[in-house]
Amino acid sequence: MSVGLVLVSHSAKLAEGLAEVAAQMAPDVTLVPAGGLPDGGIGTDYEAVAAAVARADSGDGVVLLYDLGSAEMTAELVVESLDDPVAVLADAPFVEGAVAAAVAAQGGTTRDGVVTAAVAAGGTRAQAPEAVPAEAGTEQLDLVLTNEIGLHARPAALLARSVAKLDAEVRVRLGEKEEDARSVLALMALGARKGDRLEISARGAQAGQALQAIKDLAERNFDEPGNVSDTSAR
After folding, report:
1. What is the pLDDT at residue 230?
2. 70-90 pLDDT, tens per residue?
3. Could you tell me the maximum CA-CA distance found in the chain, to the nearest angstrom?
4. Options 3.40.47.10, 1.10.10.10, 3.40.50.970, 3.40.50.510; which CATH number does 4-120 get?
5. Is residue 10 annotated as part of the catalytic site, yes or no?
6. Would you say 204 and 193 are in contact if contact means Cβ atoms under 8 Å apart?
7. 3-class secondary structure, 177
8. How far apart are CA 70 and CA 38, in angstroms?
9. Half-sphere exposure (CA, 13 Å, Cβ side) for 140?
10. What rounded mean pLDDT belongs to the chain?
11. How confident is the model at residue 130 (pLDDT cuts 50, 70, 90)?
């Protein structure tokens, strides 16, 4: 089981499309779109959202994300009507928040952790740090991406999930950009493409395990067809 997600939108197509995208990165998470009015028009419907919450609840709680305006009000009314506080709202960007929440839920994060991941997706991005020598105790891995779509969407989610539960701080660098390996949106923001060389560093009790997990993913081309990547650890 995992935390379920309900995507509340004024548009049925928007909610369904976002659920489809997020499902590519979180195949085991229940994502229920709740968009539009019963007649197919633009708007939000209380009964549809309430039914979506019931469908999304597998025992670990539900997080609702919404696009704007009355979608938030409708979602709040549904949550307030529940006898058991199984569902909560996440005040997060609709698209980025849904993706981040789905990846967190896929990794087995608690309901509150899923909300935190969604909210963090809307934070201001910090400027990339200047390159500095690796600190003592830091393990490193260089790899060349050989999968066709590079480090985007599903591959980024796989990488983030592979290190999410490990006791290690993992960073991924491409040129002057460096990001937290646990953040799927940050990894996607690197814009890493096929043929790019990534520098990955890890610190902590499970640093070696984290790098091995990433190396295994790369050698499997992130479960996509393609050539085996050129990897080297040091």
Report:
1. 46
2. 899 999 999 999 877 889 999
3. 62
4. 3.40.50.510
5. yes
6. no
7. strand
8. 16
9. 11
10. 86
11. very low
Go through 98-125 and write b for each residue having 16 or more CB atoms within 10 A of its CB, e for each that does not.
bbbbbbbbbbebebebbbbbbbbbeeee
Pairing of the two strands 4-9 and 31-35? parallel
Cα separation, 170 vs 111, in Å, equals: 23
| pLDDT beyond 50 at 229 | no
Are the C-beta atoms of residues 102 and 26 closer than 8 Å to each other?
yes
Contact criterion met (CB below 8 Å) for 100 and 118? yes
129, pLDDT greater than 50: no
Residue 63 has pLDDT above 90, yes or no: yes
pLDDT computed for residue 225 by the predictor: 59
Quick check: 186 and 207 in contact, CB under 8 A?
A: no
Residue 43 has pLDDT above 60, yes or no: yes
**Domain definitions of the chain by residue range:** 4-120, 139-233
Say how far apart CA 200 and CA 139 lie, in whole Å: 8
The whole-angstrom distance between residue 228's C-alpha and the CA centroid of its chain comes to 25
CA–CA distance from 86 to each of 20, 103, 177 (Å)?
24, 20, 39
Which residue reads 């896929």 in tokens? 106
Q: Name residue, tokens 């950009």.
A: 177
Please tell me the CATH code under which domain 139-233 is placed.
Answer: 3.30.1340.10
2, 7, 10, 164: the catalytic one is: 10
Residue type, 1: M
